[in-house]
Amino acid sequence: MSKVLKDLLYSDDHEWVKKTKDNVVLVGITDFAQSQLGSIVFVDLPEAGDDIEKDEEFGAVESVKAASDLIAPVSGEIMEVNDDLVGEPELVNENAYEAWFLKVKLSDSSELDDLLSAEEYEDISE
Amino acid sequence: MQKKTCLYDRHKALGATMEPFADFIMPIRYTSIKEEHEAVRNHVGVFDVSHMGEIKILGPQAAKYADFMFSNDIINLKENHIAYGFMLHETGTVVDDLLAYKISEHEVLFVVNAANIEKDYLHLVDHTDDFDVRIRNESDQTSQLAIQGPEANDVLPDIIGGSIESLKPFTFKDVRYEGEMIIVSRTGYTGEDGFEVYASRGTIRTLWEVLLEKGVKPVGLGARDTLRFEASLPLYGNELTDEITPLEAGFSMFVKLDSNQDFLGREALEKQKKNGVEHRIVGIELEKRAVPRHGYPVYKDDEKIGYVTTGYLSITLGKPIAMAMVEKPHTNKKTAVDVEIRGRRIPGFVRKRTFYKRKK
To answer: Is position B315 within any domain?
Structure first.
């Protein structure tokens, strides 16, 4: 059984979104996603300063066997990228909710309303 | 209807991730591919490879016929020896790659890929007219384990006996185990030392349990692929297909063109050797961290010159490496090439494709 944290928001594409302060969120992939992928060997991320667009691809997670596109759960400007994942992609397998990918300044905070609650996400990740 | 090997319930009980492979549902990984890969490189692991096909050639002209249907030499192969090679179409392209076990002049065993069992069987039967032989598909009755890794020889001989520790690479012997005559060979598909064992379903189940009790790690097909890839062993469907010849794949050492023995596909390959191949499989190493995968295009400047046949971020080397089929002018070592990954060109260079070789 994979873990779902109560205080996060989720996308259909198995990403989590965590509100940190007004209009700023952290984005990562869920425990369910990492368990489906298996050993993650590489995380291909954009750079700080780039914009991401909700529902558009912004990077990829590569496991030994497969590449999986990352789909933006929200729109905004990337403030920071988690550089730790470049050298230690296995951090995502170890704790998917600690291993954030991007810190994003939201361009439209109402997009958060479209995301799933923990209960709703549990239903689709079984 | 998906086939299950005799260990299906054991894999489920171990919590394996199961996926369809050929006609079978097979374990891809039990824990992680990386962990299982490293277990085989450094210790020992066991693979359920019961999906592999076993086709027996029987009759007075078995060896002669097998030699005609196989790119490598069976005529001069000694009994209890094994040869790696290819079954070829008349066009010289590969029907399948396989191990040929010479049991006697009257009996040869072809161990073939699961995905090709039916195709191989029909191909063999199709060419029996001029020979006194019978072809028997024993795949359903035969189960197989591969015990691989530097510690394989510390584990299996104690269990099976029969002095198998003295088996030389590419030889086999019949050993009595659990009241059954089974075949044990010094072969594998990982680049490590190891054994492959062929027996009935029940005996393989027993052996599997004993191996796990002794601490041998179960390893799935995921790590089997990363291991064979590092050792530059081809996978049918990637490096070898009905469209690719062994010369293009870079395996001319398993084709007996220097002998005077005739074999199906010989004429086409002789011609290709004389005229030179138009493309060939090479190794590529990328200079930036990324993961090249099967099918990704390879470029020289702005010209597409080929495609990746297999690629990984190598677990043993920690580097992005690939085997790729590229046009002949670009096959020299150190040639700068790009692999396109998600729309971006990642720079790399042509290199020797044996990425890993074990220390003897």
So the answer is: yes
- Does residue B28 belong to any structural domain of this protein? yes
Q: Are residues B300 and B319 in the same domain?
A: yes
Return residues 187-226 of B near A (CB < 8 Å): 222, 226
How close B243 gets to chain A, by Cα (Å)? 25
**Is residue B108 located within the same domain as residue B125?**
yes
- The two beta strands, A76-81 and A40-44, are unpaired
Residues B158 and B41 in one domain: yes
Inter-CA distances, A43 with A2, A17, B132, B289, B313, Å: 21, 18, 59, 10, 12
User: What confidence score (pLDDT) does residue A21 get?
Assistant: 84
Q: ipTM of this predicted complex?
A: 0.78
Choosing among A35, A36, A37, A39, which should be mutated to test the B contact, i.e. which has the most B CBs within 10 A?
A39
Distance from CA of A2 to the nearest CA of B (A): 14
- Tell me which of B91, B116, B137 is where a domain ends: B137
Per-residue pLDDT band at A126 (split at 50, 70, 90): confident
Do A39 and B289 make contact, defined as CB atoms within 8 angstroms? no
pLDDT, one tens digit per residue, over B213-240 is: 999 999 999 999 999 999 999 999 999 9
Q: With respect to residue B243, please indicate whether it lies within any of the assigned structural domains.
A: no
Count how many Cα atoms sit within 13 Å of the Cα of residue B109 in the half-sphere of its side chain. 20
CATH of the domain at B219: 3.30.1360.120
Kindly report the length of chain A: 126
**B66 is a domain residue:** yes
**How do residues B251-272 score in pLDDT, each as one tens digit?**
999 999 999 999 999 999 999 9
Task: List b or e across A97-113, with b for residues whose CB sees 16 or more CB atoms inside 10 angstroms.
Answer: bebbbbbbebeeeebee
Residues B41 and B166 in one domain: yes
Question: Does B183 score more than 80 pLDDT?
Answer: yes
- Domain residues for the domain of B160 are 8-49+140-230
Instruction: Show the domains of chain A with their CATH numbers.
Output: 9-108 (2.40.50.100)
Q: CA nearest A52: which of A86, A78, A22, A89? A: A78
| Residue-wise pLDDT tens digits, B306-347 | 999 999 999 999 899 999 999 999 999 999 999 999 889 999
